[in-house]
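R.M. (postdoc): so does anyone remember the format we settled on? I'll just put the structure tokens first.
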């Protein structure tokens, strides 16, 4: 039963889920777990032991429910149409200049829907579709989804593509494709100007800052549009193959300019002076390896898988110095970085073409991270995570959205982490 459920969940995420399959998976999970989701404290009836499916599903559910209870604007009296994830818990921060975390909050809702099939999560899809552009602080009159930060539009496009993959509703695909076609891909280049020679721009008013956070996600978007292209009836005049060509080109630029093959590091950006900023952040490593893995699955070219593994190993071996886990990240944009890494890292950990010893290393690392977080960093009364691996937030403390999303993403990753084959 355990292996069957895990395999089914992974196939849903990898091959394009549909509602009927998710509904069936939900009933399988209920039968497996013999418990009712949704009670915050139910996730902490003991400590986890390895890949304990019941424990991780309960913890993920507790944290997803906490996301809705403490951050979803419409959950609060007096805000019935606030279809937006507040930046601070329990109305502590209602500012709306935090656009990009909206996409990752919706990604968590997609995760929860895939995991449970619950109508409660499905009901959020059309509401967020309405609220996200309505609260966008820098939207254009012609396109309320537009944002001056290109990577913000990219995160939105990635969430929309997952919403399409999950529901089959073409409007989500078409919006993601339009964002990419109209606003993201046009920032590429120019290819004849040294030293940039291409690259996707980070911010619309800073045309020569080419960042890992705008190129890795763009490559994933183009690759996923290519994969989902045939599922949509009206796709426009741009041919399917163009998206694969662009994905390959974007990833190639990222690999050439911001990836260090000697160490596996992914540098942050090439700035307006053409210099490389050597800072390394986990979300850039995550989208780099995510793009490489996408292209490996499409092309079968081994070097993509090798590069994905190399980038992952740098994070594990050189950035996990906090008792074997990553740095604390209690707020701001950085609160989301580790969660983005885990979202793409778990797909690599599940890749059957990765050598067994490497998969075992990846499994052990992710399980250790999740165990530390769930046992020490999550408050069992509120099910909130505030970005400190070894210290849970006080029950009466306000929590920022971004680190809680990282916690949700890691717990959801544990729910789809596949058991290793017997050796």
């Amino acid at each position: 039963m355990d292996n069957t459920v895990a395999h089914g969940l992974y196939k849903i995420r990898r091959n394009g889920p549909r509602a009927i399959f998710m509904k069936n998976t939900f009933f399988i999970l209920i039968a497996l777990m013999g418990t009712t989701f949704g009670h915050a404290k139910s996730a902490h009836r003991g400590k986890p032991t390895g890949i304990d499916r019941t424990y991780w599903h309960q913890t993920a559910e507790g944290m997803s429910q906490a996301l809705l209870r403490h951050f979803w604007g419409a959950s609060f009296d007096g805000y019935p149409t606030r279809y937006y994830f507040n930046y601070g818990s329990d109305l502590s921060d209602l500012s709306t200049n935090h656009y990009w975390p909206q996409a990752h909050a919706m990604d968590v809702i997609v995760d929860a829907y895939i995991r449970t099939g619950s109508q409660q999560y499905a009901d959020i899809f059309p509401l967020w579709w309405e609220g996200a552009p309505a609260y966008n602080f820098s939207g254009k009159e012609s396109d309320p989804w537009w944002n001056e930060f290109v990577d913000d539009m990219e995160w939105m496009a990635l969430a929309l593509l997952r919403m399409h993959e999950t529901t089959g509703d073409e409007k989500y695909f078409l919006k993601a494709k339009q964002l990419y076609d109209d606003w993201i891909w046009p920032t590429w280049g120019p290819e004849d100007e040294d030293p940039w020679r291409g690259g996707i721009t980070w911010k619309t008013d800073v045309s020569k800052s080419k960042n890992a956070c705008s190129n890795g996600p763009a490559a994933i978007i183009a690759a996923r549009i290519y994969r989902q292209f045939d599922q949509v009836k009206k796709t426009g005049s741009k041919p399917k193959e163009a998206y694969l060509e662009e994905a390959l080109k974007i990833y190639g630029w990222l690999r050439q300019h911001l990836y260090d093959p000697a160490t596996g590091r992914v540098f942050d950006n090439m700035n307006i002076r053409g210099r490389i900023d050597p800072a390394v952040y986990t979300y850039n490593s995550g989208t780099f390896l995510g793009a490489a893995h996408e292209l490996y699955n499409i092309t079968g070219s081994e070097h993509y898988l090798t590069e994905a593994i190399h980038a992952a190993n740098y994070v594990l071996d050189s950035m996990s110095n906090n008792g074997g886990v990553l740095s604390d990240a209690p707020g701001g944009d950085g609160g989301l970085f580790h969660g983005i890494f885990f979202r793409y890292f778990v797909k690599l950990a599940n890749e059957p073409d990765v050598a067994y010893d490497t998969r075992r290393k990846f499994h052990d690392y992710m399980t250790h991270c999740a165990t530390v977080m769930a046992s020490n960093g999550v408050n069992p009364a509120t099910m909130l995570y505030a970005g400190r691996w070894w210290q849970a937030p006080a029950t009466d403390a306000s929590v920022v959205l971004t680190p809680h999303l990282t916690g949700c993403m890691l717990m959801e990753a544990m729910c789809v982490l596949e058991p290793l084959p017997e050796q």
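R.M.: ...and that's the designed sequence above, right after the tokens. Also worth knowing: Residues 1-46 have pLDDT under 50 and may be disordered. The longest strand covers residues 206-211.
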